Each structure stands twice: as C-alpha cells, then as structure tokens.
Amino acid sequence: MTSRCRIAIAVPYDDFGMPAAVQNEETAVTPDGTLTARAAVLDELRRLRNQLDFVDGSIVASTDGLVIAHDIAATEAYGVEPEGVAALSAVNLGLSQRVVDQANHGLLRETVIRGTFGQVVTYPAGDRALLTVIVGDIPDIEALHGPARQSASRVSALLAEFLVEPF
C-alpha cells in the first residue's frame, strides 16, 4: 500500500543567486521504505527508454531547473550533464510557453530542438515539472510524442503525490 507523503526541499543559493547543489535525499513514500519519489520517476524514465529504442536519455526536472531524476548515465548521450540540460530545458519551456501565450495558441505541448546529431524534446509534466527526452537523429519525431506525453502525464501524477503545494 502506498501512503501519501509530502516533501519540501529547501534550496540553498550560491553567491550569484543560483541554486546550489542539492543533496540527493530519498524520501520514502511506502510504509516499508521501498519506493521513493525519485525511484518512482526513474522507473517511468526507464519504461520510456525500454518502449522506444531511439531514446538516448531523459530527465525530469522542476520548472525551476532542478533535476528530480534522470536516465542519462548508462546512455549513448556521452558527456551530457543532466543538471545543465535540466536548467536550460526549464528556461526553454518557460520562454516557449510565453511565446505560445502571446500568440494565443493555447497550452504548450512540447519544444523540439534539432541538432546535427539528434533532437532534444521537452514536455510539460504538470505545472511544476518537465520531461526532457534526448533522441538520436530519427526520421519521424512524431513517433516520440505519444509515448513521451503519456510519460509526462504519469510523471505529473507521481509528483502530485509527493510535492508540497506552494503557499
């Protein structure tokens, strides 16, 4: 049986006003301590990778750009720094939502950045998180959108169980 557990993380700031490194504390969400918020999200990221063989890695972060979980270490995405990608993805998502708002085009569905070696696609995962998926150069990026949007929705539901609502 899973019990609800709300967590709050106090984020220290460095001399430049940027979030300092956050400790990777695991918060138990089951009475026996076998499932944590980070572990539940990581399971979802692994499920996405197993479903789509062209996924090189993925990151779930807060809309402030802090990594919640990532599936990068054992990937083809050599040299990717999850913290840097998460921070830039959060900025990209925020700016893209503003553009969509200004154009009166509804809610942002995803951002797609195409590079020489592939794409970096970011999806909102509720109001306070995002899912960034790194894929190689695939001919049909639409094959990613359905499964990734479902994963973003599941991540949003998982995090709703664990995150403290803002005051």
Order of helices and strands: HEEHEEEH
Return Rg in Å. Answer: 16 Å
Q: What is the CATH superfamily classification?
A: Dynein light chain 2a, cytoplasmic
Shape: globular
Number of domains: 1
The helix fraction, in percent, is 25-40%
Mean pLDDT: 80
Give the low-pLDDT segments: 1-32
The total strand number stands at: 5
Number of helices: 3
β-strand percent reads: 15-25%
CATH topology: Beta-Lactamase
Whole-Å distance between the termini?
29 Å
Question: Strand sequence of the main sheet, in spatial order?
Answer: 2-1-5-4-3
Largest sheet: 5 strands, antiparallel
What structural category do the secondary elements indicate? alpha+beta
Could you explain how this protein is built, in words?
With 167 residues, this protein is an alpha+beta fold. The protein has one domain (38-158): Dynein light chain 2a, cytoplasmic (Beta-Lactamase), CATH 3.30.450. It is 34% helix and 19% strand. The protein has helices at residues 37-51, 82-102, 142-162; strands spanning 55-62, 67-70, 111-115, 118-124, 129-136. The protein has a 5-stranded antiparallel beta sheet, sandwiched between helices. Helix 1 (37-51) packs antiparallel against helix 3 (142-162).
